[in-house]
Write a structure and sequence with these properties.
mainly beta; Jelly Rolls; 3 domains; seven-stranded mixed beta sheet; six-stranded antiparallel beta sheet; 1 helix; disordered N terminus; Alpha_rhamnosid; Rhamnosid_concanavalin; Alpha-L-rhamnosidase; Bac_rhamnosid_N
Length: about 400
Amino acid sequence: MTTWPSVAEPRSLKSHLSTTKGPWRLPKPVLAYHGDLNVMQKNWKPSACNIQMSRGAGIELRIHSFNTSQSRYLAWPGDTLESKEETCVRVRAHGLTYQPSTDWSDWVTVETGLIQPKDWQRVLSIASRQNLGKGKPKSLLYLRKNFDLNTKLTHIQKARLYITALGLYGAEINGERVEDHVLAPGFQFFKHLHVYDTYDATEPVSRDRNAIGILVSQGWYAGRLFGHIEKRDFRNLYGFRIGAMCLLKVTLSDRTNVHIPSDKTWKESVMTGWSTASFYNGDWLSVEELPPLTAALVLSDGPPVRKLKELQPKEIFQSVSGKVIVDFGHNFAGCARITVSGPSGTDIILRNAEVLENGEIETKPPRTTDVPARKFENLDLHFTASAMLRLTTGP
């Protein structure tokens, strides 16, 4: 949500403003700005700056001065921010003696996340009532909730989704993906903290009927870690009940707020079209509430994993043993997507490898990356990322 606004002042100086993270994690975040080196005047150096802040309608604009050449780690000059509070900030930098100042940058509008524990009071961790087994891989968990805003006389001003999972998640509202992250909320030590993410969900939310859906995978929470070491299967390291926890906040044009938390009114099952409002979920099961999280809920302090590009195979050939080898030509970390055709009931196993040996793939380094797949024509491994150079299909 953070942007880098720029200004164009008479001498083509530019100034940029950023925050350490958007949405902000702390009630008093740290600020930074920088200049565009392509248009900066030669030998121009900052000697001071002004930070102007606006904290909503009717609140007086304030200008704060910093008499320092430092452009990073500027202490927050205003009052402590509240949870989910929007703040507008812009910067103007001053050069050395006889050097010009920049014009004001564009406004940056950012907002805080859920800072206080009380912000999560109505939000429950939910999971399937079905016994998923302690020593077995977990099936994907589909969660959904119907809700009706009935806002024909008002408009949706904004919507925010705050979400984390005991595992990995994917979120949809009315059939549209909300997040652009991959393998979210990422690897973490669940005993000490739970990282949650914030998304702008304004676009997919409708003024009348809605549905929100969350897909949960075992991930690092309950999946197999480290492969097999000394005959130990490192599965369910943090727990064997995968689930999700989220809060959808919708702000209407009349300034009223509608909160849709994860709770016992949600349903769980597996079926196509599960995150659309028209979907019939009468045969879905009620979810079960999990014990409250004991670790701290915090915003991530690093960039998320995102899909950067799609790669096409360099070569597809058949090995001596009859396996089909798909060679991408270089090593990378990513998810496989494959479309096949054949007799019904045919088993297909995908194996990732980095080395060819005697015309066959060598699978010793990635010990436990086999993906058994049955009854599919199109496979997209959304929650599985592997380092791969070659991909083979076959027994």
